[in-house]
Amino acid sequence: MTAKKWSVLDVGTGSGILAIAARLLGATEICAIDNDPIAIKVARGNLRLNGLGDSVILSGRQLSSIRRTFTVVLGNLTADTIIELAEILQTRVAPHGYLILSGILHWQAKNLLGCFAEQFRVVKRQRKREWASFLLQRKS
User: Fold this and answer.
1) CA–CA separation, 46 vs 20, rounded Å?
2) Which of 61, 112, 59 is nearest to 90 (CA)?
3) Closest CA to 112 of 139, 89, 94
4) Mean pLDDT for the chain?
5) What pTM was computed for the model?
6) CA atoms of 22 and 24, how far apart (whole Å)
7) CA distances to 38, 48, 61, 84 from 44, in Å
8) What pLDDT does 3 receive?
């Protein structure tokens, strides 16, 4: 039996930890982007340290330059950045795919979720102290 293939876009990968976790959880194709050259260097080192150097496409490309969709899009970013990127983030999630957002101060959640309400449903929300994270699924 063949495992189902699923792809991940990690926006603002930083250290690469979410890309690494996605690979270890079975993602078959991972693209990790960050606009900070130092973050790309750190992520590349962390991928190598975890034996995953060649299994993740790591790039300094802008989100707007990526034209395809992914099964899962990850964004551990500030609420302001997510809101700024909301329109383009939505277009990178495949039909019935998932958008996982974290790094959000809980008091900013309502405004942030309003940006996604038309095309996504909230599958799960989690709060730990002042931080919130969300699992959203694209409606179609």
Assistant:
1) 8
2) 112
3) 89
4) 94
5) 0.93
6) 5
7) 10, 6, 15, 26
8) 62
